[in-house]
Write a structure and sequence with these properties.
The protein has about 200 residues and is of the alpha+beta class. The protein has a domain at about 1-125: Jelly Rolls (Sandwich). About 45% of the residues lie in helices and about 20% in strands. A hairpin with a 5-residue loop joins strand 4 and strand 5 (about 70-75). Keywords: Kinase, Transferase. GO terms for molecular function: kinase activity.
Length: about 200
């Protein structure tokens, strides 16, 4: 049960489960280990799982027609990640999900998730909350990108992904906030200088 304590704590923030319900849930999980720079999901594939990160960090990104990567999200330890469009529609997705370091996840298949909705109805509430939070976050990020200067976007990134700024490559942070790595470097230097 210890190796499942993190995911169970994550779930307990939103719903209560009996021990039998916890055991039922755990029986549906599939552990997956991903090496650094390997993909959990590639564009063109159908997303079959919602994944909970128990160790490591993933990034979700897309590649535009000019070959540029656009980072959409990061999923450090204790976060969920999936290509929501592909998972819900069961059509090929456009998102790559890649390990930034050796990463372990607990994967819950779409079939298992739907089974949970029937056997443990509280899970409908749990995944609704997770989905709503994700939607709010993406909407806020879109609004930030349209209306906020780069410095504020960076500060919001630091709040959202507290602790990740020291371990993530600057190129990926820059991609997430919509600036070049050079601009990010100058901006960080300026913010550091101004905070003295």
């Amino acid at each position: 049960m210890d190796k499942y304590s993190l995911i169970l704590e994550n779930i307990k923030r939103h719903i209560k489960l009996t021990q039998d319900e916890e055991r039922n849930f755990i029986s549906l999980l599939k552990p997956i280990a991903i090496k650094r720079k390997e993909w959990l999901l590639e564009a063109g594939e159908i997303c079959k799982y919602s994944c909970f990160v128990t160790n490591g960090c993933l990034r979700g990104y897309t590649i535009d027609t000019n070959g540029f990567e656009h980072v959409l999200s990061f999923a450090p330890k204790n976060w969920w990640i999936a290509d929501m469009y592909s998972l819900i529609s069961q059509k090929p997705g456009t998102i790559y999900i890649q390990a930034l370091e050796s990463t372990e996840v607990q994967a819950l298949s779409k079939t298992a998730q739907e089974r949970l909705y029937i056997e443990i109805p509280a899970f409908e509430r749990f995944f609704r909350i997770i989905t709503e939070n994700s939607l709010v976050s993406f909407q806020q990020r879109l609004l930030d990108n349209l209306s906020l200067p780069a410095e504020e976007r960076y500060q919001n990134f630091c709040k959202r992904y507290h602790g990740l700024t020291d371990i993530l490559p600057a190129k990926q942070v820059a991609s997430y906030i919509g600036v070049t790595p050079e601009f990010l470097s100058k901006m960080k230097h300026k913010l550091l200088y101004n905070s003295r």
